[in-house]
Specification:
The protein is built from three helices and two strands; from the N terminus they run αααββ. The protein has 64 residues and is mainly alpha-helical. The chain has a two-stranded antiparallel ribbon. A hairpin with a 4-residue loop joins β1 and β2. The longest helix has 16 residues.
Length: 64
């Protein structure tokens, strides 16, 4: 995966979380065709960029 492709994935993931689409870990993994562990890494990278992403246990999805 190139740098550009990775940035596009991260931007799309951020858009998914911001627009309150069903962003459970399982849904993210199936959307990007990757494992749940890789989905966690993508979320961790967004957090490193300064995004305030947290997991809401009552709604069972990631939120900003």
């Amino acid at each position: 995966m190139t740098y550009k492709e990775k940035k596009e994935k991260l931007n799309y993931l951020c858009e998914m979380i911001e627009n309150d689409w069903n962003t459970s870990l399982n849904m993210i993994a199936s959307k990007f065709n990757c494992s749940e562990r890789t989905a966690k890494r993508l979320i961790a990278e967004l957090r490193e960029e300064g995004r305030e992403i947290y997991y809401c246990r009552t709604r069972k999805k990631y939120c900003i």
